[in-house]
Design brief:
heterodimer; A: mainly alpha; 0% strand; globular; B: mainly alpha; Alkaline Phosphatase, subunit A; 2 domains; nine-stranded mixed beta sheet; two-stranded parallel sheet; 11 strands
Chain lengths: 252, 967
């Protein structure tokens, strides 16, 4: 008998995810010792980048109703556009700074591929949403477009800025869900948070409460934003914990 | 329970699976039967009819106080009715569908004046005019407040329940004794116009009828205009005694636009002018000798509606409708204040409206027209309405001076009490016969209570009659006697209706709880059966770990089932179950996509699956819009036909044929590749032949070919297909399938599965209509993808145990197939047309079987018989040293899981129904869902039993070899 051999989805089970994360410090240590030492971001920088992303999003959310008299419920299309318009430059530049092969790739190039990934990721997100049941009526089209652009900003653009078209990296982040470095965590956790949040956000839609926020894509956007912020918080606290531990190890 | 001692393992192993499934089936049957007895209220339709001569046994007539003894009048000279003296000659009944109470009652009755109030001004003007002879009643309908049930209730005078057990399956014609039937028997002529539900209920009854289709909700005017067109000419005709005009526009306007809409107000204004004209005609002809000298006008709603235009439940808005009655007489009758019923007053205490139970409608109208009361009526003759029509008719004849109100009131009151006595006798007779003849009658305690009340009422009646006969002191005393008689009768009637309501509209919680408990127990049983199978698995093969795993896959599967199940607790998710299932299935596919990204393979399968989900999603969308009646073009038949009608393109017409050819090609490939052997090859070839027949059948239906065999094509071909299907099924069940040469376990299982599916496919496709082949292809693609993608997330190779996630996917796909084939969980979602494919005449069992196959074909029959594919997809299992045993175990496990998933959702539906039994949507939504789920579950249990038998024969015949291969 080989216990565990019958377990499917091992890669995704919570234990194994935990295990993967447990092994992370050693891996990143190894990484840091290796040649790609400067490739990874320092924990402080990673934290700062995450915080800036979060503050931008929350700031837009707080400021939008008073400054531009628009909020998610009354005018979802405009508000969503505002969200991604403010978030995109922040994300593209911040993650562009963490780009791989910094020697060979210019910041401009990283920013460029991030921007290119924006519509591409939007299409993927929109397709996914439609398969899951998003309405396809023409009157929902603007909402779908803006929502998928926002989603793309949260999950595709950072990865594209950092990795470009490197398949193995994408696969590591999105298929194996095995982040190897601080940057990986910065990309992976909030992106998954946004998707899972949006997934849960769709739940109230069929209820017959007749609330305006039940319309597509309002509650899904709420879910995505919440999930993204939770993802940011989770990755931040993880980085914080791990780096302190590492520092401990080092000082010993 | 599934256990046996470890030594008896080899003995029990071959017997077990079917036994387990059989015990699950028995558990489910018992629990559902018990629950249903508590929840689904049923009433037996009695075949008896009231007859004119019945009245001779009525005690109200041999008391010696015949009507004539009330001297001073010459009423005896007038022609006598059958049971009662007729008081009106003709009745015009105008039914305004979904007439809310506040449409008619003056706005001063309500806290706030809403835009739709006070629009039927003509009724208010007449009713609250000092000298008028009209009245407005608040009419209370009994739920379910749908038009069909209400019309039944109005004409029978009873409480139609959710299930009226009788011989009216399929054809809605009313078999029970009813008002219309009594009218016809008494030689009254009835003319009907408007809603065609009436003609469905009473196909042969009307002298003239102008039925107009009630189906198209979007069309606000066709029915109404048709009604108006025929109403006015008819009012000048003399060939009727009762005229029924049923206007539908308001109901439709409510459904589409809601109550607070310009369309609704427009409708109300239109009705106001129509009613104005009707009353004008009546009044112009109401002179002595005129056509409408003695015509009563009733304007009524069959039920109310909510502000959104919904109806069906028991909320006040839906139940409260209104009735307006205008008597042909000159002045309102005088009702002695002692016997007046309580009124509701408006805010200024100026206007009063009394309440009328729709239950009383049939008997009151019968009494007014002097015909026998419908046999099953449990209503009482309404005092106000009777007074309105009968009140002062003697006054006019005898020309008493107006001061003698009391005397005249005594006259009609005396008649009323006599009518009431007859009424009570008739109700008592019905209750007695119902308790005696119905399986689910009333308890003897209840009946004896009723009898006491009845005896008391009868006594009071005799006392009153004797007081009258003795003529001791007319006036007040007599009225007092009458009053006590009326009160005693009222007591009896209220007891009757209370009993009937509790019997026919109240739930038995104990039974429901017990049923639910057994259901929960069966879930546990199934769960432990699965655990045990996995344990045996572990013992049999060392490659398999004993503990079934807290793996991500099984956790995720449990999570999905839990979401799906709990979503059924809310009525919103219940309505959107198709969307919930699609959402969940798509989620699984995305997870699978992730795994395929890990493995860098199976991208085509994932892509195809995603596309399939997308397509099915839109198929469901089209189906749902059909349900809402929005897209009328899609109304008839399948949605494919609908699109065809919309675009009238030959291409769409051809799609089903192309799909059929593709299916046949797939089957041909299966035969050609040599998997399928012997007799089974013949079966597959025959299935292809059946597809050709189906194509010919459709072609002949379509009129593409104007061949001589059109008639044969329509009826003979389907029958041939059914016969072939049945024959094949028997052959498969009992035949040896010519597998003699096949030793390979995998090939044999595949062989059987393909044969079984191809046998069923032709019948299911034929019944499903044009969408059939497309849905079959969709099923094949979906099944193939699930099979290929199972265990995709496995790290090190493929597991031997069946992947619970794949089984969940399979069941979700089955749920989606149910909805995307254009079904929904309501009885109007049944495609009755399918029951008549190949047959023109109706036979209960045959048509019920066909309907079941059509309804559950793609969602239960095909998926369950196709489940072995999940085992077949697992190549590893066939490479072990004892594949037969493992395959058997694996199959058992898969079927147990599938059964558990289905049972879980059904259990939650049952819990939901229990919780929501007082919900206003209970009859419109929860009860049909419950019925569909329960029937589906039992069918699935039976099918699983058969499937496990069929796929297990395999081991039984080969058992002697087992030890050999072991040693």
């Amino acid at each position: 008998m080989r216990p565990g051999s019958a377990l499917p989805w091992k890669s995704l089970s919570s234990q194994s995810l935990g295990r993967a994360l447990d092994s992370l410090p050693s891996r990143s240590n190894r990484l840091m010792e290796g040649k790609s030492k400067q490739e990874d971001a320092s924990p402080t920088m990673a934290l700062a980048a995450q915080l800036i992303c979060g503050i931008t999003l929350v700031g837009t959310y707080v400021v939008a109703p008073s400054a531009l008299s628009t909020d998610l419920v009354s005018d979802p299309t405009r508000t969503l556009r505002l969200f991604w318009l403010t978030l995109v430059p922040v994300v593209v530049i911040l993650f562009g700074l963490f780009r791989q092969n910094r020697g060979r790739t210019s910041l401009l190039r990283a920013v460029g591929r991030g921007l290119l990934a924006l519509p591409a990721g939007a299409i993927v997100n929109a397709l996914g949403a439609v398969v899951l049941g998003a309405p396809v009526h023409v009157k929902y089209l603007p909402g779908t477009v803006e929502w998928s652009l926002m989603m793309s900003t949260m999950n595709f653009v950072p990865a594209a800025s950092v990795f470009g078209a490197s398949w193995s990296n994408w696969q590591r982040i999105f298929a194996f869900t095995k982040p190897n470095s601080w940057i990986d965590i910065m990309i992976c956790v909030p992106a998954h948070g946004a998707v899972v949040g949006a997934w849960f956000g769709a739940w109230p839609m069929p209820l017959d409460w007749d609330r305006p926020w039940q319309e597509w894509p309002i509650c899904v956007s709420y879910g995505a934003i919440t999930g993204y912020l939770v993802g940011l918080a989770a990755s931040c606290s993880y980085i914080l914990l791990r780096s302190r531990h590492q520092w401990h190890v080092k000082s010993e | 329970m599934s256990g046996g001692s470890p030594d008896g393992k080899s003995q029990t192993k071959t017997m077990h699976p079917t036994l387990i499934f059989l015990s699950v089936l028995v558990l489910h049957v018992v629990s559902i039967l018990i629950f249903t007895r508590g929840f689904l209220l049923a009433r037996t339709e009695l075949p008896f009819h009231s007859d004119c001569s019945d009245v001779s046994s009525c005690p109200c007539y041999d008391s010696g106080v015949e009507s004539g003894s009330f001297n001073g009048t010459s009423r005896d000279g007038a022609f006598r009715g059958c049971w009662t003296k007729p008081v009106v000659g003709k009745i015009v009944i105008i039914v305004l569908d979904a007439l809310r109470f506040d449409f008619v009652a003056p706005s001063s009755f309500f806290e706030e004046k809403k835009p739709w109030m006070d629009k039927l001004k003509v009724l208010q003007k007449l009713a609250f005019n000092e000298r008028s002879t009209a009245r407005i009643f608040k009419a209370i309908a009994d739920p379910p407040t749908t038009s069909l049930q209400r019309l039944k209730g109005l004409t029978i005078g009873g409480l139609p329940t959710f299930v009226d057990i009788g011989n009216s399956f399929g054809t809605p014609a009313l078999a029970e004794d009813n008002l219309i039937n009594q009218l016809i028997n008494s030689g009254k002529r009835v003319v009907m116009m408007g809603d065609d539900t009436w003609v469905q209920l009473f196909p042969q009854h009307f002298v003239r009828s102008y039925p107009l289709p009630s189906f198209n909700v979007k069309d606000l005017d066709t029915v109404d205009n048709g009604c108006i067109k025929h109403l006015f000419p008819s009012m000048y005709e003399e060939d009727w005694d009762v005229l029924i005009a049923h206007f539908l526009g308001m109901d439709h306007a409510g459904h589409i636009f809601g109550v607070d809409s310009a369309e609704m107000i427009e409708k109300l204004e239109q009705y106001n002018s129509v009613l104005e004209k009707v009353i004008e005609v009546l009044e112009s002809q109401s002179g002595p000798g005129g056509l409408h000298e003695n015509t009563l006008l009733l304007v009524m709603g069959d039920h109310g509606q909510t502000l959104n235009g919904d109806h069906g439940g028991g909320s006040a808005e839906e139940v409260e409708t209104s009735m307006f009655a205008m008597s042909p007489k000159r002045s309102l009758p005088f009702i002695p204040p002692e016997i007046e019923t309580p009124y509701e007053f408006d805010s200024e205490n100026r206007v009063q409206i009394s309440t009328f139970q729709q239950l009383d409608f049939a008997v009151t109208v019968s009494a007014l027209l002097g015909i026998p009361f419908p046999f099953g009526s449990i209503g009482r003759v309404n005092l106000e309405l009777y007074a309105l029509a009968a009140g002062n008719w003697s006054m006019e004849e005898s020309e008493v001076d107006p001061g003698q109100n009391y005397l005249s009131s005594e006259m009609w009151l005396h008649d009323y009490v006599q009518v009431l006595c007859t009424n009570a006798w008739q109700v008592k007779r019905y209750i007695d016969i119902y308790s005696a003849s119905s399986m689910i009658g009333f308890s003897s305690d209840d009946v004896s209570l009723l009898s006491n009340a009845y005896v008391k009422a009868e006594k009071m009646y005799l006392k009153a009659m004797n007081a009258l006969a003795s003529q001791s002191d007319p006036g007040d005393t007599f009225v007092t006697h009458l009053k006590s008689s009326i009160d005693a009768h009222a007591e009896f009637f209220s007891r009757v209706s209370e009993l009937a309501r509790s019997k026919w509209t109240e739930f038995k919680l104990g039974m429901m709880g017990l049923g639910l408990g057994i259901m929960l127990f069966s879930l546990l049983f199934q769960y432990f059966a699965i655990r045990r199978v996995i344990k045996i698995f572990g013992k049999t093969s060392h490659k398999v770990s004993g503990d079934s795993g807290i793996s991500f896959g099984s956790l995720f599967a449990c999570f999905l089932v839990a979401i799906h199940a709990t979503s059924l607790l809310s009525n919103s998710y219940l309505v959107e179950e198709a969307k919930v299932a699609t959402f969940l299935l798509a989620t699984v596919v995305f997870v699978k996509f992730k795994h395929s990204m890990v493995k860098m393979k199976m991208f085509y399968e994932v892509g195809a699956f995603l596309f399939l989900v997308l397509v099915l999603r839109f198929a469901i969308y089209v189906g749902l819009s059909k349900q809402a009646g929005v897209t009328t073009l899609l109304s008839s038949g399948s949605w494919i036909i609908g699109i065809n009608e919309a675009y009238s393109t030959i291409i769409v017409e051809l799609i089903p044929f192309v799909a059929l050819i593709f299916l046949a090609y797939l089957l041909y490939r299966a035969t050609a590749s040599g998997i399928v052997l012997g007799i089974s090859k013949a079966i597959v070839v025959k299935a292809i032949f059946c597809y050709v027949l189906i194509a010919v059948h459709w072609a002949s239906e379509n009129g593409i070919s104007n061949l001589a065999f059109k008639k044969t094509g329509r009826t003979l071909i389907p029958r041939i297909i059914y016969a072939i299907g049945l024959g094949e099924l028997l052959l498969l069940a009992f035949g040896k399938l010519g597998e003699v040469g096949v030793t390979d376990c995998r090939e044999r299982l595949l062989n059987r599965t393909v044969c079984m599916l191809s046998t069923w496919s032709s019948t299911v496709i034929l019944l499903s209509g044009r969408q059939g082949p497309l849905m079959a292809i969709a099923s094949i693609i979906g099944g193939y993808c699930i099979m290929k993608l199972q265990n995709a997330g496995e790290d090190n190779g493929v597991s031997l145990i069946a992947d619970p996630l794949s089984v969940v996917e399979w069941s979700l796909l089955a749920v989606i197939m149910f909805f995307s084939t254009g079904h929904w969980c309501a009885f109007d979602g049944l495609r009755y047309g399918a029951a008549f494919v190949g047959f023109d005449e109706f036979a209960l069992v045959r048509q019920a079987i066909l309907l079941t196959i059509e309804t559950f074909g793609f969602s239960h029959i095909i998926p369950i018989f196709g489940l072995p594919f999940l085992v077949l997809g697992n190549n590893l299992i066939f490479r072990t040293n004892q594949p037969r045993k493992l395959v058997t175990l694996c199959l058992t496990q898969v079927y147990l899981m599938y059964g558990l998933i289905m049972a879980t959702t059904v259990t939650v539906t049952i819990i939901c129904v229990t919780i929501q039994r007082r919900h206003l949507m209970v009859w419109a939504l929860f009860a049909p869902k419950f019925v569909f789920d329960v029937v589906g579950l039992l069918l699935a249990d039976v099918l699983i039993c058969f499937a496990s038998l069929y796929y297990h024969l395999l081991d039984k015949t080969e058992r002697p070899q087992d030890p050999a291969s072991k040693s």
